[in-house]
Amino acid sequence: MRVAWKKINTGSGGLLCSHCRWKVFVAEEDPSKGSPLMFTCRGSDTVASTLISIFYHLADDPSQMVKLRAELENVNSVPGLDALKSMAHLNGMINEALRLHPALPSGGFRETPPEGLTIAGHFIPGNVVVSAPRYSLGRRE
């Protein structure tokens, strides 16, 4: 919650949140009312970087824009979950953007157990911190 408030107060989340700051966030007697808007502010950085990646690749390869427009051409309202799942090209664009430009490029860090661990045929001694960086894995052949 502290990070979201910092974004709001320093400007990066202010446009989104300022219109309802006092209506939603000051309602301390029922903090659950602020949750949806707070989640929007918290996820804005990762969503923004993913959208930028998608737009970059669409601009770089206009044929992908043509395919995406064709897939979205007959959508007249906000699609439901089943309709979104069936949009193969849209899902492919999102997944490829996340693979090539992950919003969080570093993987989670883990520590091997005290007795050690074998990963992909390689023994890793005990109590060693290991990581699988998403950025590198997304470019692996």
UniProtKB/TrEMBL annotation:
Its needed co-factors are: heme
Domain of life where this protein originates: Eukaryota
Q: Which InterPro entries match?
A: Cyt_P450 (IPR001128), Cyt_P450_sf (IPR036396), Cytochrome_P450_monoxygenase (IPR050121)
What Pfam families does the database record attribute to this sequence?
p450 (PF00067)
Look up keyword Transcription and say if it applies.
Answer: no
Listed A to Z, the keywords are:
Iron, Metal-binding, Monooxygenase, Oxidoreductase
Q: Which GO terms describe its molecular function?
A: heme binding; iron ion binding; monooxygenase activity; oxidoreductase activity, acting on paired donors, with incorporation or reduction of molecular oxygen
Q: Does the keyword Iron apply?
A: yes
Q: Which Gene3D superfamilies match?
A: Cytochrome P450
Task: State the similarity comment.
Answer: Belongs to the cytochrome P450 family.
Q: What is this protein called?
A: Cytochrome P450
